Amino acid sequence: xxxxxxxxxxxxxxxxxxxxxxxxxxxxxxxxxxxxxxxxxxxxxxxxxxxxxxxxxxxxxxxxxxxxxxxxxxxxxxxxxxxxxxxxxxxxxxxxxxxxxxxxxxxxxxxxxxxxxxxxxxxxxxxxxxxxxxxxxxxxxxxxxxxxxxxxxxxxxxxxxxxxxxxxxxxxxxxxxxxxxxxxxxxxxxxxxxxxxxxxxxxxxxxxxxxxxxxxxxxxxxxxxxxxxxxxxxxxxxxxxxxxxxxxxxxxxxxxxxxxxxxxxxxxxxxxxxxx
Length: 276
Description:
Layout: E1 23-28, E2 33-40, E3 43-44, H1 55-72, E4 77-81, E5 83-87, E6 90-95, H2 102-111, E7 115-118, E8 121-126, E9 132-135, E10 142-144, H3 153-161, E11 163-167, E12 170-173, E13 191-202, E14 212-216, H4 219-229, E15 230-231, H5 237-250, E16 252-258, H6 261-274
Parallel strand pairs: 6-13, 13-16
Antiparallel strand pairs: 1-2, 2-3, 4-8, 4-15, 5-6, 5-7, 8-9, 9-13, 10-12, 11-12, 14-16
Helix pairs in contact: 2-6, 4-5
């Protein structure tokens, strides 16, 4: 899930970094259960956390905790749950719930050659002037199974050809599509200014008719989606609202209504490049 993260043994380092947090994973061999502890000042904060019966669930939550820690190192950095691709030198963020199609749309656009930043977790740094920068974490994208019914057969075949693994209800996909010479995935730590915030509104597919519509939307709608999908335990509610308000005031706020991910990606390619 995070195969290219830079990892080092802090215990063996000449000057070990100061501890930011202490995460402990335990395994109950008899019952085949894992547990994830987040330590407080006096030991584990949760004496009996909910156990995991599969390594996927554990790894998913562990990565989420690590991303939170990464973001908390920067005063103006938040952990945003969103999809992101680079279009015309700036990031386009896709906002929506777990079934809005963020992963599908990001991979469809990566297939067309746009730089894939994330389909899930994005550290975002927001300046006092509203300028915001996203940082790539090089996480492996995942598709919820079964694949969307509106996905063309050739796209499904393409994704399945570049499948890295299938765990539970998810298929992990190589975002570079096997192209090691000119990878389309952003490298770990790569940063890019945010240029647009797009709220996804996915509709049921109508036989023989594709609907794709991109319209300006109000800031309040975008702020609501951002608030629901932003994790920043080091910010109070007033700070979160102020920074998201400043961000939306300086960034294009759009709504994408669509019922076919491939058609939507093609439409966005033309529309966003024309207005970059």
